[in-house]
Amino acid sequence: MPAPEGEPIPALAAPPQGASVRITRMRFADADHLSEATRHARIEVSVAGGRGYHGGLVTLEAPELKIQWGFHGVPLMVSGQVKEPAILSVWGSGGSGRCNGQAMGRGVLFYPAGTELQSRSDGACGRVSASVSNLESLARSLAPDLDLAEGSGRRYADGAREAVAVIRSLLLTARRAVESGGAALRDASARRALAEQLGMAIVRAVAGDRPNRRREGIAACAALVREAEEILRARRYQPVSVPELCKVLGASEARLREAFQRIYGTGPSSYLRLRRLHLVRRKLRTTRREECTVSAAASSLGFYEFGRFAGEYRAVFGELPSQTERAR
To answer: What is the rounded distance in angstroms from the CA atom of residue 80 to the CA atom of residue 257?
Structure first.
C-alpha cells in the first residue's frame, strides 16, 4: 500500500535502469540544503515557523512527463519562477496552504511557463507538482479556444471537480509505480499513456475553470508582491523597512499589507522579519568566525534586542545562533 498523502515517502526500491527514466530521492534536515537543491529551478525556500526543518523530495523524470513529490515538516514560504507548464497540488497535515492567494484545499493550481509561484504553508504539508511534455498540443486538440498562457497565467482548477479527481488519481498511480521500484515506468508506451491521460485531465480542468473578479484582484496582489521580492533580492543583505519598501514600490502601506495577506497570509512586517532571520543565518554560515560574530550579523540586519532575536532564531531554525556560529 502506498504511503498516505501528507506522510514522508518511504525508501525506494532500485530505480529503473536506462537514460529514459530517472528516479531520485533526497532527504533534507536543513532548509538551506533544500534551497540549494531547488535553486536550479529558480525556487527560493524559507522556513516560516516551527523547529528547524525536515523533509524530502522524490522526483520522476522521463521524456513524457516530470513529477515531484515532497513532504515538509514545518511551515514554508516558497517563491520562484515556473520553468515549464505545470500543475501543483498541496495538502496539509498540520495547517492550510495558500498558493498565489488561493487556499489550496484539495484542488490543483496550473502555472504556464515563466509565471511566478508564491506559496506559504501554515504547518507540515505535502505537495506534488507535475508537467507533461505534449500539453500544448493536447490543449489545441481538446480546447482550441484555450490559451494556456493568457492573462496572469494562474488558473485555479478546482471548479472542474471530475477532471481534478482524475489528476489526483493519476498522480497516485505514478507514485505507486515509483514506490514499487519503477518497473512499470520502463515501458515507453505505458509512460506515454500516463502522460497523455494526465495532460488531457489538466487541459479539461483548466478549460472547465472560469476566471472571476476575485482572482483578477489576486493577480494584482501577486504582481505587487513579486515586485517587492525583486527589490529585496536586489538589496541582498540590506535590511529594508515597510515604509521604505512602500516608497520604492509607489504603494500605500495598506495596499502592500493587503497584497501580502492575500498571497502569503502574513503581513509585510512579519515577512521582512523572517527574511532578516534567514539573512543572518546565511551570514553566519558563509562568513569566517573571526570576520563576523553573532552580534555583528544580527545588528547588521536590524536586530538589536539579542535575547528576543535568539528566541525567534531558535523558533525558526531549531538551534541558537551561537550553535550555527560554532558549526562553521
So the answer is: 20
pLDDT in tens, 27-44: 888 777 777 777 666 777
| Domains detected in the chain | 22-209 (2.60.120.10), 215-326 (1.10.10.60)
String of b and e for 257-268 (b: at least 16 CB within 10 Å)? Answer: bbbbebbbbbbb
Report pTM. 0.67
Please state whether beta strands 86-92 and 125-132 pair in parallel, antiparallel, or not at all (unpaired). antiparallel
> Over the chain, what is the mean pLDDT?
79
Cell triple for 179: 514506490
Higher per-residue pLDDT: 267 or 44:
267
φ/ψ (deg, to 5) at 109: -110, 145
Give the separation between CA 83 and CA 131, rounded to whole angstroms: 10
User: Per-residue DSSP letters for 151-219?
Assistant: TTS-EEETS-HHHHHHHHHHHHHHHHHHHTTSGGGS-HHHHHHHHHHHHHHHHHHHHH----HHHHHHH
CA–CA distance, 309 with 328 (Å, rounded to integer): 20
Is-contact 135 178, C-beta < 8 A? no
Cell numbers 492573462: residue = 151
pLDDT at 156: 60
